[in-house]
# Entry
Amino acid sequence: MHALLVEDDDRMAQALGTALALRGHTVRRVGRALDALRHVREAEFVLLDLGLPDLDGLELLRRLRTVCDAPLIVVTARCEERDIVQGLRAGADDYVVKPFRMAELMARIDSVRRRTDPQPGRSDPAATGYRPVRTGDVEVDLAGRTVTVAGAEVRLTRREFDVLAFLAARPDEVHSREVILDRIWGDAFLAASRSLDVHVAGIRAKTGRSGLVRTVRGFGYQLGFPDPRGGER
# Structure
């Protein structure tokens, strides 16, 4: 796999580059946002530091997501909850705070790759003949990976769509947090994090339908039947 490493600290970049190379990855390291935008299309996954000299890392993340859908992990010293939430909402597949254990980061890279790479035999909505799922005035096209609200398309991040599609494919079931995290993130350990909650909040905010994802308190989530006025019927 070809990795794009966006890191302006030379010592950190050397350590990460060496660890990735030992695992068989080829690495292009850049230290500026402009260079990241120039080379991101050739990357198969991205490690992104947020403390860059020429552009705020969160703004770079948003720009990268407009041109690239490769798996992306934020690796940064920013540990405030607000930063983590903003990073996940902007499209990061995972968020790792410095300092970190190298073995854990490598495991997270493997986990992100497993859940974003096509898997032989994995259920594919296009292959299984799933039809678009409608609930209220929301339509979720599982095969086309699109969401429309009152006929207008709404752009979700890849992970937001994955969560919504998982619920939409099984609309009559209530799914535990652990099951959703294991299926979508490939790691039920993330139940201790806010990743799932952040993406559910993003779905509700972007669609303008707070009832689209129903919270089952103390357990998990289910596809809801949203009211066009923003609530749930």
User: Anything to note?
Assistant: The chain has two domains: 2-116, 125-223.
